[in-house]
């Protein structure tokens, strides 16, 4: 049972915090504003030509798909929005997290939201995987976003995963007015009523503007569904995320461009990932508007998988070995105890105890041994599991305590089998001798 708890702990850590990036052996980070790009897609104030960039990415991705031995996982273009989320869309628990802004007086919430645009094939596959209607979510005339209902929190000491959304709705993306070089820090409640924007003046002192004066324009993004999973090309994040198709790139007008990215599946082969990188670098020469950085993570992924497999194998081998030792000890102790009580059994039979009553007595005794042993073992295992839970909760704030019920069931079955086997063996040993022989051997 304790081994099962350890395995559960490791599985939780590897599944929720240790991102081994399965199927993502080569990462491409693509920029159009970097020094390596020809700046033809870069606009003023850090913005980019969204449609033009999507056209370049689409052509580049089509060329990459032709590489042998490498499977692209799709691509995304990531933007960040200053968003105003209406009342009722977010779970109350998300407001208590470190660094999370509180609700405003009207129960709306202001903060940053990542808006990720993925290629058309990835979007369609994502919609299908969620069981959503293609006609509704693939309509370019009325684009609907899918909100990723998974929010990772890591403050350097503890890790947690939360579900921030509780319903769909319409999110406002804000574009702030020019404040003579100053930037809006946050939106907060105005003591006079309504909302106001906070910024800092040249002296670093807080200054305020009414909301209507600070916000130059708004753009609505309608969220049509919530999803616990992300497309393969979208990274996990500690920020709220919206997923949209690349065809809806016009919805990025009020957002700030971050970067584009792409990942390649090379079957976990580091050398194949290197060869794919060389081929992609050759293709990228025909795309001067794209500045591409590469990260080969195949070898690290392999080492992480091997480490997890090795530790799990060791844990279960240790559990099997210790279990076999315990089984042998129980079998030997119980069988010998019954064999050494031959005189007692002979005396009971001599005063009239029949075979049926005798077997029932032995069955009750063995059941008592089994229940007491299993109860004590379960209690000790529960304490050990709770200790593991306390240790895990120091680093994983959303880890919940639970017993490994499959291992508990296996333990109960093993206890029953061992008790039955030892009793059957001892009964056969004692059955061969008569009452007179048993009393005579004991007297001698």
From TrEMBL:
Pfam families: FtsX. The chain crosses the membrane at residues 313-340, 369-392, 404-426. GO terms for molecular function: transmembrane transporter activity. Keywords: Cell membrane, Membrane, Transmembrane, Transmembrane helix. InterPro entries: ABC3_permease_C, Macrolide_Exporter_MacB. It comes from the Bacteria. This is ABC transporter permease. Belongs to the ABC-4 integral membrane protein family. One of its GO terms (cellular component) is plasma membrane. Residues 317-434 form the ABC3 transporter permease C-terminal domain. It is found in: Cell membrane. Its main location: membrane. It is a multi-pass membrane protein.
């Amino acid at each position: 049972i304790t081994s099962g708890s350890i395995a559960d702990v490791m599985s939780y850590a590897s599944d929720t915090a240790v991102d081994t990036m399965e199927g993502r052996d080569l990462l491409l980070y693509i920029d159009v504003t970097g020094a390596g790009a020809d700046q033809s897609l870069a606009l003023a104030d850090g913005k980019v030509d969204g449609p033009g960039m999507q056209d370049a990415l689409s052509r580049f991705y089509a060329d990459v798909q032709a590489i042998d031995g490498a499977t692209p996982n799709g691509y995304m273009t990531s933007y960040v929005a200053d968003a105003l989320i209406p009342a009722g869309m977010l779970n109350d628990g998300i407001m208590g997290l470190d660094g999370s802004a509180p609700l405003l007086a009207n129960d709306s919430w202001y903060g940053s939201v990542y808006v990720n645009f993925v290629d058309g094939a990835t979007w369609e596959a994502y919609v299908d995987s969620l069981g959503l209607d293609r006609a509704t979510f693939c309509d370019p005339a009325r684009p609907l976003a899918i909100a990723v209902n998974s929010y990772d929190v890591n403050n350097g000491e503890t890790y947690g995963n939360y579900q921030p959304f509780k319903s769909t709705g319409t999110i406002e993306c804000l574009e702030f007015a020019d404040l003579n070089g100053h930037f809006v820090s946050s939106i907060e409640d105005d003591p006079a009523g309504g909302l106001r924007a906070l910024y800092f003046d040249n002296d670093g002192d807080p200054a305020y503007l009414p909301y209507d004066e600070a916000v130059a324009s708004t753009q609505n993004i309608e969220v049509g569904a919530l999803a616990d999973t992300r497309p393969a090309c979208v990274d996990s994040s500690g920020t709220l995320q919206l997923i949209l198709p690349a065809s809806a790139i016009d919805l990025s007008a009020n957002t700030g461009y971050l970067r584009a990215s792409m990942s390649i599946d090379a079957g976990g082969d580091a050398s194949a990932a290197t060869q794919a990188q060389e081929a992609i670098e050759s293709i990228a020469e025909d795309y001067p508007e794209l500045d591409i950085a590469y990260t080969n993570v195949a070898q690290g992924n392999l080492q992480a998988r091997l480490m997890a497999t090795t530790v799990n194998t060791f844990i279960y081998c240790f559990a099997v070995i210790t279990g076999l030792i315990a089984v042998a000890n129980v079998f030997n102790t119980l069988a010998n105890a019954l064999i050494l009580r031959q005189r007692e059994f002979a005396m009971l039979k001599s005063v009239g105890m029949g075979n049926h009553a005798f077997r029932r007595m032995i069955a009750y005794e063995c059941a008592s041994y089994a229940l007491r042993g299993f109860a004590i073992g379960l209690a000790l295992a529960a304490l050990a599991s709770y200790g593991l839970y306390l240790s895990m909760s120091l680093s994983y704030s959303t880890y919940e305590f639970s017993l490994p019920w499959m291992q508990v069931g296996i333990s109960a079955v093993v206890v029953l089998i061992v008790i039955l086997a030892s009793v059957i063996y001892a009964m056969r040993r004692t059955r061969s001798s008569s009452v007179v022989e048993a009393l005579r051997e004991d007297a001698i």
